Amino acid sequence: MEKSDRFDAAQTSEGRYRLLVEAITDYAIYMLDRDGHVTSWNPGAKRFKGYEAEEIIGHHFSTFYTETEREQKVPALALEEAERTGRFEREGWRVRKDGTQFWAHVIVDAIRSPKGELVGFAKITRDLTERRAAEAKLRESEQQFRLMVQSVTDYAIYMLDVEGNVASWNAGAQRIKGYAPEEIIGRHFSNFYTEEDRAAGLPRTGLQTASRDGRWEHEGQRVRKDGTRFWAHVVIDAIRDDDGKLVGFAKVTRDITERREAEAALQAAQGTMIRSQKLEAIGQLTGGVAHDFNNLLQVISGNLQLLRKDIAGNARAEMRVQNALGGVARGSKLASQLLAFARRQPLEPRVVNAGRLIKKLDEMLRRALGGEIEVETVVAGGLWNSLIDPDQLENAILNLAINARDAMNGEGRLTIEASNAFLDDEYVRQHDELSAGQYVMVAVTDTGTGIAPDILERVYEPFFTTKAEDKGTGLGLAMVYGFLKQSGGHVKIYSEVDAGTTVKLYFPREVASEDTLVAAPSDEIKGGEETVLVVEDDDEVREVAVSMLIELGYRVVKARDAASALVIVDSGIPIDLIFTDVMMPGTLRSPDLARKAKERLPGVAVLFTSGYTQNAIVHGGRLDQGVGLLAKPYTREALARKIRHVLANQAQRRAAQGSQHTVNEKAFKTATVLLVEDDDLIRITTAEMLSDLGCKVKQASTAQDALKILEEGSVDILLTDVGLPGVSGLQLAKEASARRPQLRIVLATGDSGLKSEATRLGATFIVKPYTPASLRQGLERAMKMRS
Fold this sequence. Notes:
Strand content: 15-25%
Distance between the termini: 152 Å
Structural class: alpha/beta
Helix content: 40-55%
Number of helices: 27
Number of strands: 27
Shape: elongated
Low-confidence stretches: 340-344, 468-474, 619-623, 659-664
């Protein structure tokens, strides 16, 4: 159209409409005749469809449809609907000239003459490809976000309206809070808060803060559908529209119960570790103090015992010496408690039933506590055994009972219980040096004043006490703590102020049968004429030991340290026994002195002494195999007996090594002998002697093993060393005689003072070192006694 033509056209109404249509490029606007052929074409149609006017005018508009829609006659149906209703509107795929497709929004309007006659159709098409792609992408994004939120189970993610009512609910919310969507949507979110938080207005504060600041974050307890509580970390974010108007809130909740419990457990473990390290450090200190203290007690005790011989017949002086020795005994007990706390006390564990031991203590406890305290003992049926030192257990229970008496001011109720217990993995994780498993539990409960929480953690410390200054040493619980730890057990205190205290002692279960406990013999024995090398760095302690040994008849050589002692050994002086302190100054340790001395003098015996064994000869709370130890402070009688036992064992070793086994008697060929000896060399050589006599031999190194053999098979003669570790040979003999009254018993020892014990048992007594001939004679006497 020329410029002048456009100007002319613009002057008419029809011309103005034509110019408007020609100017539009965002819409395809064109005319169809009654049959659907294109009769006009605007620039927008050209841009969308790609056809020039001359290429498409006269062609049917179905050209723009996909082949599938043409087969379905969609173009014809569109014209029919437009003719019938006056309008057809749809969205769908259309085809450009180059064959590419685009998403179109289509309107077809019927055009009629003033008389109502159909003259054609007006068709407007808009390309919505980009918008549809954007909408599809938005829908995909929303769907992915919705799926993501719904699939999250570790977090409760949901929406609230402006009033705080739940508007959406994800799977995590259902898992954590317990509500299904239909149960909670529409209800106020304050349902999740505790009653006390609702009363304090915390839900309202959360919404107000989020509305004002945009965000509110908080940790606290929340309530599940079933009423249980959990610790939650909560974030509430305000949601606003484009105009800044508040439309709701987004709420995210995480269950942090496990995290808080883990943090609490970690803090408790750290506290336990710190306390354990503190107690270990104090234990090292007290162990050293106990060593020095025992040396002082040994000087005092030794001199008093030596003095007692000089004042014999002076009743007044004897009484004073006896009182002084009583003070030494009290001091020795104090040192023993320090060593028990430091876990440095050599224990003598035996298989015992704590229930029977508690019952035996009942009368003594009633006397010690007084008549105003009611004592009750409760022992569960089927109580397991434990491998513990019975004397130390008695001391522990007595200490706890005395503490309870003081806490009750002499009036109240004391309950001692014994039962089986199991400590699981969860419990032992919170306690150092403790293993899960079966335990025997002894509980001591009082109705006293209780212990304040701020000092409960200090009660195991030595010298710490809640009593008045003149009422206690502060060592009772320290001793109990050390004893339990050294025995592989555990102690736990439960206490409330004005509500009493319970102390629970846990000992590992022992499946072996119970040992029989008997008292040690009290007969005094003589000394000897052997040569003893005394090695002691403390001058006063050394002189006391030397004086005692000389009084007992021994020849004595002395040295102040291990190096000096080794020089004496190398000098050629005949030495029968080395009596040495365990803790010695200098680079040469006492165990090394013993080893080097035996290399030079194979026949020498060694006896250790100490008030603090450390780890030189004691491991796991027990003496190393074959090691003799005399604990400080010791009495003259204890020294005499121990030296005779050690010398006898050494003499027996020499005799065993040099003996010729030539005896062969028919009388012994039918006898089965159970030989019990803890020294390997003595046991092996004695077994050879017995075999040469024609005996059948069964061997054991401990009383426990011997009792098992007695239960399993036939035994005619029990030949046992008296100085067995743990349960002595005397105890074994009494238990074996009780089980097997016809059993013949032979006791072997270097302690001649035990003859009276052998007589009471109806046993034969042979003195170490014995020869094949003296052994045969002892067996013959035993066979005649019960033949």
